[in-house]
UniProtKB/TrEMBL annotation:
GN (gene name): nnrE
Species of provenance: Dyella solisilvae
Binding-site residues, K(+): N65, D127, S163
UniProt-listed Enzyme Commission number(s): 4.2.1.136, 5.1.99.6
Entry's cofactor comment: Binds 1 potassium ion per subunit.
Cofactor: Mg(2+); K(+)
Annotated binding of (6S)-NADPHX, by residue: 64-68, 131-137, 160, 258, 319, 366, 433
Entry protein name: Bifunctional NAD(P)H-hydrate repair enzyme
Family of the protein in this entry: In the N-terminal section; belongs to the NnrE/AIBP family.
Length: 494
């Protein structure tokens, strides 16, 4: 067993450093040998993606990431390729200095970056400027180099981390390399999969450098990547009562679409029955467009209360509003003691009147809602999504989905799962309403809060990817996900 058995595990920068130290100090693998293995893996990756490229430019920083770059350039020259190296300065550290010397002994020339120079003529650019240690904005002269690399229009291979990206959080505090491919070494860095990072990493590859399973023994990852999953086939004798009853609550004046999307998603995700508690004006449209939804006119708590005993799960928030009507229904729903999924204005009301849910709720905030729930600003949420989702789960004693690129799911004990699917086309109205209905339906069918959140987020994102594959990302709308969602839920990938 090697690193391939740990590809679903995500590590902090400090944990990766500990793995490095363990490999060197305890397993007896010299740091320079790890650098050589990284360079060899990078050359294989480069030739796989750009097999016809004959000229590369490698941009090397002063540390070990730059050392990887120097050794890559040396290997490339030995293989008959042209490799030009541009360095930010003198290498620092024994291994990095040795790597530079090896490149120069092979006849390689090192160009110094002066801030406004022309870049070498190359078919592929290689970013070996900074590794996992950088957690600040790039210096102005390095930012200028990054801009010139981007302006060249040539494809970019990033070694370990695209320079300028925080490998712990996924934040890009300033300029950053936009890679076409990033090859990451030894272990997957959690920050590369969420926040701003997916816009910079391109295709992510992990190479464990041939390290043995002993490296990971007794070392727990910080988070895990979700894996594709579906529900098992239903028993042949099952009936609608076996598959739960979702009651979706919302749809203030003018927002019938939100609660319809939520209810319809719950149906497509397999709930046996779905009721909708909404404004009376919405009933004709709901009944005509989706007669399978049992729509009820609810003008206040007295009308909602008779519907609650029949419900297995509540989906609260889509189109709810924060006025007197929405607030009254929200209070009634939360006081019912029924498992629920809370989204949209259900979360905004919670930010105004906090309470703990004692293991009965899934909360699905986007970063703005998460900021309100924590009494912070959105920038602080984006600066460390892992810390934010864990704090939310602890504070509200609930399973929490922090939506966005690389959506995160956390439980109150600190476990985190990350969704590797989804696309920019899903940044459109109604997607969150769908997710609320999907998660509620999975809860209704007997999934635990954690299972429902992880499976629901994964199905939602994968359905979005299938829908985008069929018609493109731009113009994707929430209802486009309903048909592929049904297939994925039943184990069909297309």
């Amino acid at each position: 067993m090697t690193a391939s058995a740990h590809r679903q595990e995500l590590y902090t920068v400090e944990q990766v450093r500990a793995l490095d130290r363990h490999a060197i100090d305890d397993l007896g693998i010299p740091g320079y040998e790890l650098m050589e293995r990284a360079a060899a893996a990078a050359l294989v990756c480069l030739r796989e993606h750009w097999p016809h490229a004959r000229r590369m430019a490698v941009y090397c920083g002063v540390g070990n990431n730059g050392g990887d770059g120097f050794l890559l350039a040396a290997l490339a020259r030995e293989a008959g390729l042209q490799a030009a190296v541009v360095a930010l300065g003198d290498s620092r550290g024994d291994d990095a200095e040795r790597a530079r010397e090896a490149y120069e002994r092979g006849g390689g020339e090192v160009l110094s970056w002066e801030g406004q120079d022309e870049l070498p003529d190359a078919e592929v650019q290689v970013d070996a400027l900074y590794g996992t240690g950088l957690q600040r904005a790039l210096a102005p002269e390095v930012a200028q180099l990054v801009r010139q690399i981007r302006a060249s229009g040539r494809p970019v291979l990033a070694l370990d981390v695209p320079s300028g990206i925080n490998a712990d959080t996924g934040e890009a505090p300033g300029e950053a390399i936009r890679a076409d491919v990033t090859i990451s070494f030894i272990a997957a860095k959690r920050g590369l999969y969420t926040g701003q990072a997916p816009g910079y990493t391109g295709q992510l590859q992990l190479d464990g450098l041939g390290l043995p399973a002993a490296l990971w023994q007794g070392r727990e990852a910080d988070a895990v990547l979700m894996q594709p999953a579906a529900l098992p086939p239903r028993p042949r004798q099952s009936h609608k009562g076996d598959n739960g009853h979702v009651l979706a609550i919302g749809g203030e004046h003018g927002t019938a679409g939100a609660i319809r999307l939520c209810g319809e998603a719950a149906l497509r995700a397999g709930a046996g029955l779905v009721s909708v508690a909404t404004r009376a004006e919405h009933l004709p449209a709901l009944n005509s467009a989706r007669p399978e939804l049992m729509a009820h006119a609810v003008d206040g708590p007295q009308a909602l209360e008779p519907l609650l005993p029949r419900a297995t799960v509540l989906a609260v928030g889509p189109g709810l509003g924060q006025g007197a009507w929405g607030h009254a229904l929200w209070l009634t729903a939360l006081d019912a003691g029924i498992p629920l999924v809370l989204d949209a204005d259900g979360l905004n009301l919670l930010a105004q009147e906090p309470r703990k849910f004692h293991g009965l709720a899934v909360l699905t905030p986007h970063p703005g809602e998460a900021a309100r729930l924590l009494g912070r600003d959105t920038a602080s949420i984006s600066a460390d999504r892992f810390a934010a989702v864990r704090e939310l789960a602890r504070r509200y004693d609930a399973v929490v989905v922090l939506k966005g690129a690389g959506s995160l799911v956390a439980d109150p004990t600190g476990h985190v799962a990350l969704c590797p699917w989804g696309n920019p086309g899903m940044a459109s109205g109604g997607m969150g309403d769908l997710l609320t209905g999907i998660v509620a339906a999975l809860l209704a069918q007997g999934c635990s809060l954690w299972e429902a959140a992880c499976l629901g987020v994964g199905l939602h994102a994968r359905a979005g990817d299938l829908a985008a594959r069929r018609g493109g990302e731009r113009g994707l709308i929430a209802s486009d996900l309903l048909e592929p969602l049904r297939g994925l839920l039943n184990g069909r990938e297309s």
